[in-house]
Write a structure and sequence with these properties.
heterodimer, A: mainly beta, seven-stranded mixed beta sheet, four-stranded antiparallel beta sheet, 0% helix, globular, B: mainly beta, 11 strands
């Protein structure tokens, strides 16, 4: 099974900050990586696929990059609506697996 | 507008069974792969199972293999999860999710574009 490791697990930031979340795969997954945002009590929201392609309607302050085993999600200019937990997920092989999540909280 | 509405959750004793349903609307259900993803209280996301758009391919997480069965009825736009031999560790919010790429059974199509609001399953004596 491919293990997905996110870091940090918690991130404290202020509105306007640039934040970066890292996701590492235990083996190469090419660019078959997606990112999701989840707010308390809500279902996850699909943000990014193929490591760097923004889903329609997702603000351009969100960006993804990476290939192989190391990936990043960057939020440029954090907005109040962005405080949430973020998950990466690979879709390279079975089983599909998620990272453990990164909670972005207000500093 | 895409809608996925789960139902069938509840409290069940260990060893018993439960069936979840997910009613889909607002997209071409019969052309999309469908998944179940769960989230234990206060924990992260865990993929449970996938079924291809035509029902011909199914895959499961090891944690549920042999106990859970995913199925779909394209005439009713409904996804199911039959859960047998339930354990305490199956307690979670169960989401149904859809992959938006139509007529694709490749795993590389299986991201989770659309999500329902979840059905809570509690396994407790």
């Amino acid at each position: 099974d491919i293990q997905m490791t996110q870091s940090p697990s918690t991130l404290s930031a202020s509105v306007g900050d640039r934040v970066t979340i890292t996701c590492r795969a235990s083996q190469s997954i090419s660019y078959w990586l997606a990112w999701y945002q989840q707010k308390p009590g809500k279902a996850p929201k699909f943000l990014i696929y193929k490591a760097s392609t923004l889903e329609s309607g997702v603000p351009s302050r969100f960006g993804g990059s990476g290939f192989g085993t190391e990936f990043t999600l960057t939020i440029s200019g954090l907005q109040p609506d962005d405080f949430a937990t973020y998950y990466c997920q690979h879709y390279n092989s079975y089983p599909l697996t998620f990272g453990g999540g990164t909670k972005v909280e207000i500093k | 507008q895409v809608q996925l509405v789960e139902s069938g959750g509840g409290v069940v004793q260990p060893g018993r069974s439960l069936r979840l349903s997910c009613a889909a609307s607002g997209f071409s259900f019969s052309s999309n792969g469908m998944h179940w993803v769960r989230q234990a209280p206060g924990k992260g996301l865990e993929w449970v199972a996938v079924i291809s758009y035509d029902g011909s391919n199914k895959y499961y997480a090891d944690s549920v293999k042999g106990r859970f069965t995913i199925s779909r009825d394209n005439s009713k736009n409904t996804l199911y999860l039959q859960m047998n031999s339930l354990r305490a560790e199956d307690t979670a919010l169960y989401y149904c999710a859809a992959s938006a790429l139509g007529y694709c059974s490749s795993i590389n199509c299986y991201r989770f574009d659309y999500w329902g609001q979840g059905a809570l399953v509690t396994v407790s004596s």
